What does this fold into?
Amino acid sequence: MNIPKIHSVSKKILVALVGAFLLVFLLFHATANLFVLRHDDGAWYSTFCHFMGTNWIVKVFEVVLLATIMIHIVLTMWLAVTNKLARPVRYRQPQRTTTHTTSKLMVWTGILIFVCMILHFTDFYFVKLGWVKGEYMVETEKVQTPELNQLMQFSSQMNMTPSDLLREMESYADSDASDPQTTAYLEEMRDQLSLYQILERAYQEGNISADGKWLRHLTYDERQTLRELLPESGVEPDFYYMVRQKFQSLYLVVMYLLFFAVIFLHLRHAFPSVFQTLGLNNYKYNTALELLGKAYTWIVVLMFAIVPILIYMGC
It folds into this structure.
């Protein structure tokens, strides 16, 4: 089996650098998740998601992050394989070692985390890419076009609903010779009626944010309609609603908590190993690093875990 020759120390340093980057990101991600717990109808969390989904710097960082995760996975698996090949025959007598148990499980916990991340991406990130159906939201003012306001005003003056008004206009057009301008106008009104129906459902079902800025809980078909009629509307996944809906299920809450337990085991060794691999540890402050690593691991995992628990409890 031919594997490119890169010194194992170099691979370990690369793994440590990438791991350090991911440790910082995890803390950031865990902090952002706490916005879901605010009782503000998702104002903070939706604003955060909107910024993360529209800012071009964040989009570049997103690509860097995904690349970093893949590099971390490839390098750790590569390191494990090369280490295994370097010692194909196991020792006859098992040797005692002071290596922490979590260190021995790093590859296996890493594989479990990778599998869980695919499920996590399916629930959220793939919805953003449009690969998986979800719930969506759009800024209210983007849907309330001048043409739609004109249709609503005209129908109000005629004491009719927009749907009834359009039917009357179509019956009148059918009784007369087809005029290209009339046909184009009716087509435009049909499009505006589709927008009106989206608005009407949102108001009837209370799917409007508290500040009136967002239409929430849009379906996949409504998303497609808006993207077709209003390409610049910027329809976004309604992550706040999706998170709160998913964590109503005890099964999903338990699965996520198990996922965080695996992350705990992985981070428990990852934090101190970064300092050790990069040569930043020292006997004078090894104890401090150990305590800092424990604090970081507990804080990050608890920040992640508290979200599904409190949502399930109705908080």
